[in-house]
Amino acid sequence: MLFENPFLKTGLADDSLKGIPAPSVDADAPRNLLKRCPEAGETPLVALGAFAGAGEVFVKDERARMGLGSFKALGAAYVIACEAGRGRAAGKTFVCASAGNHGLSVAAGASAFKAKAVIYLSRAVPEAFAARLRGWGAEVRRVDGSYEDSMAAAAEAAAKEGFKLLSDSSWQGYTAYPHRLMEGYLVMAAEAVEQMPEPPTHIFLQAGVGGLAAACAAYFRKVWGDGPRIVVVEPEAAPALIESVKAGRFVSTSGPESCMGRLDCKDASLIALKGLARDASAFMTISEAEALSVLKPLENLDLKTTPSGGAALAGLLSLPQLGQEARVLCIVSEGPEA
């Protein structure tokens, strides 16, 4: 389902977003800090040529980002690095909920800066992932129920045990860390701008709470202006952004569990909602079958990923052909083991 954004350029004028900052577009800050990291090489832009009915498709391949396997390496670890620069990391405990890669970024950042990490996981998250977190020195705590239940448990632990809550989402009264975290994602966007041979005509961005999509869309609008058509892709089971934009205000959604686990978020980040209501041309949802259908074609192109990682390209594949004049930019956001 495709929904044209009626708030493009103007954004949402709603009380739910009062006091919420727009996404940062300062890519220099995270790029300068990242230069000090020995794992901080650029990720490649892969030219697929004609794909899914478009004349040219380019993929920003985040599967090996900083050895952590996803774009999330740029987020929470960047926040902890900034805290360390202010003397506020060593000896502290950062806590979060995770369905995957955000927890790894928290764990790796804490390990690098002599802090501790406590990661809450729902029972549905595989034990192999919990083992990866423990390999970075994190304490893993399991929660019965959904990802939202693990988020509530992390927030409760922060309040009761004095931990620093480091979420990749944002809500009223909690914006500083997620705003900084999204700023870290601008490294990926800035690299893509420099690597693209020409500005794209279309950009497809997958979204869970919306951090990746909002950060990239804000930066792409800054550099490329109104030219590209930016389409945000969500699971049908978790239509947090599209339903909020339809309503003209933040709304909480519900749905079954999605195979797009990292995108299976029922509530949008308010920072992301504010940015995408202004910057996205359209929002769309994809079915479970559509998410799975793109995996084999991507594997055949040496871009093996997960349903979450390939969701933007699944969105492209599910639409009528854009034609030979279309020049499309997408992101494969994580590797197959994420």
Fold and architecture overview:
The chain is of the alpha/beta class and 338 residues long. It has 13 helices and eleven strands. The chain has helices at 28-34, 76-85, 101-112, 127-135, 147-161, 176-184, 186-195, 211-224, 240-247, 270-279, 288-293, 295-300, 311-318; strands spanning 2-4, 45-51, 54-61, 93-97, 116-122, 139-143, 164-165, 202-206, 229-235, 282-286, 323-332. The strands form two sheets. Strands 1-10-9-8-11-3-2 form a seven-stranded mixed β-sheet, sandwiched between helices. Helix 2 (76-85) crosses helix 6 (176-184), helix 6 (176-184) packs across helix 8 (211-224) and helix 8 runs parallel beside helix 10. It is globular, with a radius of gyration of 18 Å.
Any idea what the radius of gyration is? 18 Å
Reading the helices and strands in chain order gives: EHEEHEHEHEHEHHEHEHHEHHHE
Spatial order of strands in the largest sheet: 1-10-9-8-11-3-2
Helix/strand class: alpha/beta
Shape: globular
Strand content: 15-25%
Helix coverage percent: 25-40%
Q: Which parts are unreliable, with pLDDT below 50 for 5 consecutive residues or more?
A: none
Major sheet description: 7 strands, mixed
pLDDT averaged residue by residue: 95
Number of H- or I-type helical stretches:
13
Distance between the termini: 27 Å
Give the tally of β-strands: 11
Secondary structure layout plus pairing:
Elements lengths: L1 E3 L23 H7 L10 E7 L2 E8 L14 H10 L7 E5 L3 H12 L3 E7 L4 H9 L3 E5 L3 H15 L2 E2 L10 H9 L1 H10 L6 E5 L4 H14 L4 E7 L4 H8 L22 H10 L2 E5 L1 H6 L1 H6 L10 H8 L4 E10 L6
Parallel strand pairs: 3-11, 4-5, 4-7, 5-6, 8-9, 8-11, 9-10
Antiparallel strand pairs: 1-10, 2-3
Helix pairs in contact: 2-3, 2-6, 6-8, 7-8, 8-10
